Sequence to fold (840 residues):
Amino acid sequence: MDVPGHDGVLPKMPPYVSRGHDARLREAVQSAANGRSEFVVLVGGSSTGKTRACWEAIQVLDERWQLWHPIDPSRPEAAARAVADVGPRTVVWLNEAQHYLLTADPGVGERIAAGLRTLLADPARGPVLVLATLWPEYWTTLTAAPKVEKPDQYAQARQLLSGADMRVPEAFTAAELRALADAATGDVRLRHAVRHAADGRVTQHLAGVPELSARYRNAFPAARAVIDVAIDARRIGYSVQIPHSLLEQAAPGYLTDLEWQQAGEGWLERALDYTEEPCHGVRGPLTRIRARPGDLANSSGEPRYRLADYLEQSGRAERAAAFPPDSFWIATAKTVSDPDLLRRLADHARKRGRYQHAVNLYRMAVAHGDSRSLMYLARFRVSNGDRDAAAALLQQAADHGDTDVLRLMALAAERLGDSASAEAIATQAADYGNTQVLRELAFQHSMTFDRARAVALYRQAAERGDKGALRDLSHLRQQAGDADGAEMLALEAASGGDTRALRDLVRHRYGEGDIAGAGAIAVRAADQGNTELLRDLAERCEAAGDTAAAMDLYQQAANRGDIQALRDLAELRQAAGDTASAADLFQQLADRGDIQALRDLAELRQAAGDTASAADLYQLAVNRGYTEAWWDLARLREQAGDATGAEVLALEAANHGNTRALWHLSQLRERRGDHASAEALALQAADRGDANALRDLAPLRERAGDRVGAEALAIQAADRGYTDILQNLAVWREREGNLLGAEPLYRQAADRGDTQALKHLAALREQAGDYTEAEVMYRRAIDRGDDDALWCLANLWDRASNCTSADQLRRFGLTSCGMPATGLDFDAPIVLPSDAGTSI
Fold:
């Protein structure tokens, strides 16, 4: 950044001052230098210093290490192509890791994530150090568990990222600012940033954020319009490369009539000249992307532009309640040719109630080869009563091999009694690789006791490689009383890798009281290398109170090398009071490398009063890498009255990735009445990614009457990214009737991006008769992708006479395409006319 009044030459980068996350990052780098592969993700907002922190940390690596930053020809393509070739002593640099893991085609990102997991787990290719940076919202997207019955698009990425995050705070603490001021004496840029950065956000100031914000805030209307187009495009799912044609066609709709008339000829060129002007050493708000020679990313040759990161992030919040105008949706339909992007844009338009634009975008997606959009178009047709057109669209999707549509058509035909058509459609789906349709039809035949048809369909699925169909056939044989046939099919399925049929058979025999028969099947499976059935049968005997039989079965499995069965046997012996035998079995487990067994032995010693021996065993477990034992040692110190020693050990556990030790110790201190110490430990756990201690402490304080303390903890948790604690506390207060205390908490959670809190807040405002503010809250939730808020808003308009005009409804698109204001159920069955031959 430039500093007013200073013309001298300064070093390229200002001095660096370490912060809390730097110490943990250095530990990971040192671990890699010592021979252990490490993966670290720095999670923080734009311009918070993530990249600089990574660069400073790797300076300790010697010359044998090399740096690999996959970028050419594109970041995901480079990473997917070459990750398998990465060898020892390589720093894999994944700056802005969303470009590698959150790709337009989720399959590409998953392949990269899987390749990195393989790399990190392969001792022959280590040590390697993988350093990544992510914005918090991308971290949330990649690590959130999928909703029930939704595809798990980021399973590999979630496994890769689990436990690897280090949070980079948005701002410097008071202590860090003092250290920064000391370091700033020789660097005028840093001194200026320390003095002028708002709220301790020094790195953002250094990155030119103030000028970016001022440039956006003070832009003339046309320049502001093109920036807003780019912000809306990014928040609604467009790629980072915004085409010139989108800006040109969409921006006029962001201008008033007077502004458009005054813009004059050449308005777009003047606007882009303004947005491309650099801001104190960083690129401007919206800048043209200069393609490299041979770059195929933009083969059309059309100029493309990139929005500044900080404006993208701040713009998401500033325009959260703004609905893009019609010109935006029309322009996307005209300028986008990627069918996946068109479908995503159509989904966003549909979720915002812009049904007319959604239909148009779905049609464009279909025109570019996306058959899945046909399903949505068919549902629109059904909602408008045009069932013949819906049938034609569904048939078109089926003709394109869309097996989801084929499945619905087959099941509908079966419900109408047309089994021949249903089976023909199911066979067509199987030819496209979806044998599940055959199995579903077979199941329906079995429920109507048409076993012959069920067997024939299951056989068709099995012949196409569906091992689950063999399991289904085995169940049919068992139901028919053909025990030998059922066992033969179960063994056939097991030989193909599906042991569930054998497991079900063992459970069936056991349920019939044939324990010997169940055991014989389990032993046969164990002799083929699958001891799971012996262990499963042992668990059932144990649950039924037949301890002797359970011990015998566990022993048989253990004799065949099943370590888990050996552990189960040891725990069963311990539960039966035979501590000597249990200790002997735990020792066998420890000798086989089971570190958990050392802890079990230590607990036996501790229960017998031999704390010194227990401590030695816990320490041995720690030395072998079992981090849970750190907490056990801390607990021993705490019970012995050594609070300082207990805290040191709990922190050591946290530094080794086990933040539960801090959580446990926090609970002990809280129960003992040491609230200050409990809170300090809880905050340290949250800073390391585990907010469970804060989740427990906040309601404890609330129930104890310390509402101020509870609220302070919840706010500190929210500042660390855990807004659910604020919302939970608000819900608690609301249920207690304390609405005045609940509303500020909901508002703070909503300001941090929590859409559930927005809806709670809207409901409270509605109860108070403040319909205008309630509408604002619902609209903010809608724009953040909350489908339910759209219908909450429609219901609000129905109830509030001053908010239900037809003009308002049309303005928000709720009546576009003849859609009812009560909403459109995209999961409801589609019923086609009888002459179409099917209903879905």
Summary: Residues 1-7, 802-840 have pLDDT under 50 and may be disordered. The beta strands are 38-43, 66-68, 90-94, 128-134, 165-167, 242-243, 286-288, 304-307. The two ends are 62 Å apart (CA to CA). The chain is about 65% helix and 5% strand.
